[in-house]
Task: structure prediction
Amino acid sequence: MNEYDSPDLRSLATEPEDLDGHTIEELFDYLDAGREPVDPSIEGSAGCRIALEALTRLRELTPGLLAADAAEEPEPSESWVQSILSGIALDARSGRRIPVAGRVPEADLGITEGAVRGAIRAAERVVPGIVVGKCRFDGDVTVPGAPVRVRVEVSAPYGVPIPDAVHRLRAEIERRLRTHTTLNVSGIDIEVRDVHEVRNPKEGDR
Amino acid sequence: MSSTRSPLDDADDRIIADRAADGDTVAFAVLVRRHAPVMRAYARRLLPGSADVDDVVQDAFITAWDQLAALDDPGRVRSWLLRITGRKAIDRIRSSRPLAELDGAELPAPERLSPPRRAEARAGIAALGEAINRLPDAQRECWVLRELGEYSYDEISEELGIPVSTVRGLLARARKDIIVRMEQWR
Amino acid sequence: MSESTEQAVAADIEAAVRALPGVTGVFRSGGLLAKLVDAGAEALVAAEQRAPFVRWETGETGPRADVAIGVRASAGAAETSARAHEVATVICREHGIAGADIRVTVVHIDEDAVRATDPAPSADS
Result:
């Protein structure tokens, strides 16, 4: 049998005496280095080449393992998802308190940054499919009358004319800021970060 | 079946993670639904046969919510979630057995019945999964952290509280065992 | 003012504010809006059998009430918080308390249930 050309994998052995003095660890590092520079004492050893082939196979299979395992896991049930949500602290993100000017000047009114962000995110419903991501206020929102720029990142659905979508979203955000705050908004910057495919608009429509 | 689809389901991780970091629980729920299976799978590799897998993943998500705002690259939320999952699983491992046992003792793995698998995409992967579950605990943990969790040797040493040299030895033995076992099944 | 009176005022303020149209909930102030699972859901979990969520303190400058509310989007946070302030002021007056510093904070805006199929509001308002 010609063991150089067609190594018999069943003869795989892993001890240094089977690997012409090399160890599995060495062979693994050699593979990691892309079998470069070529090591003649490894490449010339039948035992090493058999082991290298097995290690290569292991390396090729490994990345698929987690994905295959994940595919075996059931989809999380809605009650399980809810049980996680019920364990998280919502106030963690409330942010700064933004003063609101009322009819009575001495009335101490305010709204949290988190609440305003939520309202801004919900503006997305005027452009079906658009998704608002990060939302930031540049400027000191805690000082009444101080100019504040609103920065919003969005992901747009594929196929929607972006300038029109941005225009409508901006108008809706503006309207909401007027309804919920008395911020002196100097501008609303909307950055379209990416475009996403709308996969399955509505279940059951098929 | 899954609840009503929202446009969030179509957006990528980065935008969803940013939004969850801003305090949106609906976006966070999207992350939970999207990544729970892979987190469970990963935890199950670290804790095979354990009933703690769900708890580990649940804990991981709660920690993730608290730390989301500090996540540098929201586009890498998946690997970040796996990191947290790994840490939670290791906590269980460390609390459930004395450290000495981690020191590379060659305790044979108990015969573990793998869950009934549906039609396996690739027999090779099935064999690999089987081989991993038959490794002694310490070897398996090192291998899973290194290959599935992308930990460095130093990180494994730190997380498991064992010397780097031991990690090296365990990994070498794990690889040996795995390839031998997989070849037997060809 | 005795502690029980403070509790009574706080409870009255909470009830009155909660009854306002546009108010979706009164939350523990200075913290927990915790465990409001679905942002759009009615979050009036366990409204009874507990200490009032309105916090009443007596500081150096006199009595002070902290009220944290959720607001329906269509009602508007600015308008609704002003009304909550008015109603809280009335309650204080009824209890014979003058000059209380009442602080109202909107901590959540609940979106009205609008489906994507509804006509989008025109942008040229």
In short: Chain C touches chain B through four residues (CB under 8 Å). The CA atoms of residues 32 and 53 of chain C lie 10 Å apart. The two ends of chain C are 50 Å apart (CA to CA). The longest strand of chain C covers residues 62-72.
